[in-house]
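hey all, quick one before standup. I had two proteins in the batch that finished overnight and I want to keep them in one place so we stop losing track of which output belongs to which input. First protein below, input sequence then structure tokens straight from the run.
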Amino acid sequence: MASWTVMTPSGEAAREDAVFIRDGFNWWAALLGPFWALVNRMWIVAILLGVAGILASLMPPVFAAVANIGLLLVAGIFGADLKIWSLGRRGFAEAMQLQAASLEEAELRFFASGEAPASAPATAPMPAIATGALTATDPLGLFGKGW
């Protein structure tokens, strides 16, 4: 069985627009690198892989081949993580992780679970300066109040 991560966008139609990402080695990322990232709308990843490939090709031929193979192996190993990161930057949140043999089984398990997707926290934590923790006697906020 494979492990799947389910990412859902925030909003009303979150469950219908869920994206299922199979954890593990991604052969398409390993074989195609930046082109795989472009197809998956992962612009930052595509640029970074392309620039790293160009920089690797500027090395002497033996080192360039080793560096490019290493780069593509890293893309294959971390392909699922890179996709999760890219979706997170677009407003998706991790809703569930599940075990399933195929994509169809993962979809059936997710939609049959009936669980509401995980929502983002309502407010971000406030920095110490906004909460008034910093005072004239403790300008760095390191020692707490009363020191």
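OK second protein, same deal, sequence then tokens:
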Amino acid sequence: MALDKTKIINICGKIILFSLYIIAFFFPISKAIIEIFSTLAIVCWIIKKILQQKNIPITQLNLAIFAYLAICFFSIFISSNLKISSRTFFGKILQDVTLFFVIADTLNTERRIKSFLYILFCSSLVLGVDGIYQYFTHKDFIRHRLYVGKDRIHATFPTANDFACYLNTVIPFTLVSFFVKLRLKSFRFLFASLFTLLFICLILTISRGGWFAFLSILLFMSIWIHSLAVFLLITGIFIIIGREFCYPTLPSLKERLTNFFNFLDSSSIDRDKIWDTAWRMFIHRPWLGLGIGTFMFNFNKFVVGTYTFGTPYAHNCYLQIACEVGIIGLLSFLSILILFFSHGIETIDAQPKTFQRYVLLASMAAILGYCVQMAVDTSFYSLDLGMLFWVLLGLGAAAINNIKLETVTPK
């Protein structure tokens, strides 16, 4: 019986790891696949924990995450739509948070993290090629998506902003790969090529939110990797000079670079109306909100006049969180980020330049870029990018735990 139990635990462990690798590759390709394999990983992880009679992994974020979960769960019972809130909590929030613990618990060795990242790199390579292909043919070759907007690539994603968000989560890991000790120095050329491809795609998304996120990533990483400050300077010069050479081949890019700080364009005006509506929604019930997942359900009740573009997301994820679960819910979510960055920075400052340290730095930079873009986009509320947030958070938590383990039992 004990042997059968051990076999089941081992089989579950292999299924979990395989599922995470599948998720890493199919993040930008198939929502159905990542939904199936995330569910499979979670079910096997729960079975494994029950058989092992072990608790969930201990991270510095546990208390804040449980507080956030509790508030979201409580909001179901005071929600303006019980059905929507129940479905959102059990079908998305609980699943994503549980996946965080699966990641933090499973990616507990350098080899596993490397395998996960290499698969992520392979996937991003396919997406980068797809983005360039879409630029020239106006249609991507994976999902056969046509251009949504003029001269803005988005590959397999529905919008260019979503593609930019994905690129900004992968780019930090390609950057730290330059500084990790590698057996074959030729790998640095491969990482440089991948970074160049993803950077070009990021430029071609013409996503202002994505560009701000990228600049924040470089600024943050430059604190510990000073040579990136030089690249940041070169990027600034490129933005200033490059706009003069964009026309006529890239008129949309030239216009965006020229009006980089002009917030009176049509998309900004549209966001102003959405944010005005969201603010009135928040003021209506500021402390506990209108119920998790109910922003779109309540939007037309608070909009002034008519909104002709359908029922939108808030295009500011923090404001939408405040509308749905109030100030208390927003503070609990922000506490997760504060604890992650405070413990992450403390760990980085105290450790030598190891692989796990660079993984933690890249995870923090990716989360920072994600959080910057959250302020103007809807990434946290999409199935794939929303899950990606918790995966990155879990990867960072795994790196912190691995560093602590290495400190206690050095190689």
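Flagging for whoever picks this up: Residues 1-55 form one domain. The chain has two domains: 1-55, 60-408.
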